[in-house]
Here is the input.
Amino acid sequence: MSELAKRLAQVRERIAAAAKRAGRRPEDITLVGVTKTVPVEIIQEAVAAGLRDLGENRVQELVAKEPLIKGVNWHMIGHLQRNKVKQVLGKISLLHSLDSLALARELEKRAEAEGKSLEVLIEVNVGGEETKFGLPPAAVIPFIKEITNFPALKLRGLMTVAPLVDDPEKVRPVFRRMAALKREVEALKLPGVEMRYLSMGMTNDFEVAIEEGANMVRIGTAIFGPRLL
Ligand SMILES: *Cc1c(COP(=O)(O)O)cnc(C)c1O
Here is the structure.
């Protein structure tokens, strides 16, 4: 087994162990391998080892790699500028980072014009960090009520990037808050809204995220090694 395949297997084992601790099934957790800065040949190796979901945070990199790696689901996990919507539509299976009404309007307009729909997650900034994108938790439900008027946008859940801390236990409350918010939205039973995914957890904190309810984790470093760029 290659080093990469070993690291991938170790990540899968850690995901499975965290799922079991939380009384959940490992197969209910989707691993999105974060491939930013990773060369295509290396990504192909991970795909050959069974990785099926790939995430990029920049449009330029996503559109460069997407035509070269087929048979996978591409996820856009970074902030999406309105003028780049056209480039990603039809290439991604899930947008994790819906963070404004202006972006929602643009996505709706473009998707509608092309006769497509797009599955989206709303990015939430639970930590209230200035440097991060995402809606404050209190804005999420009013926002969802607005976007239910956009038929081409299919709301499928919530996403967050927790603050970077030395001990992941410190961000457990962030993940717990997200899980509570997801349940609140579910209870509203809004038309067209299916709260299927809670995308949270990265290399430093994914086990705690899973214990608190994440069912989609976005992991780069633990699979591909440290980024050099
Ligand atoms: C880079 C990135 C990740 C993965 O980070 P690692 O710490 O390398 O696992 C996850 N989510 C987003 C939004 C990212 O930009």
About this structure: The pocket of pyridoxal-5'-phosphate is lined by residues 34, 36, 57, 77-78, 161, 202-204, 218-222 (CB under 6 Å).
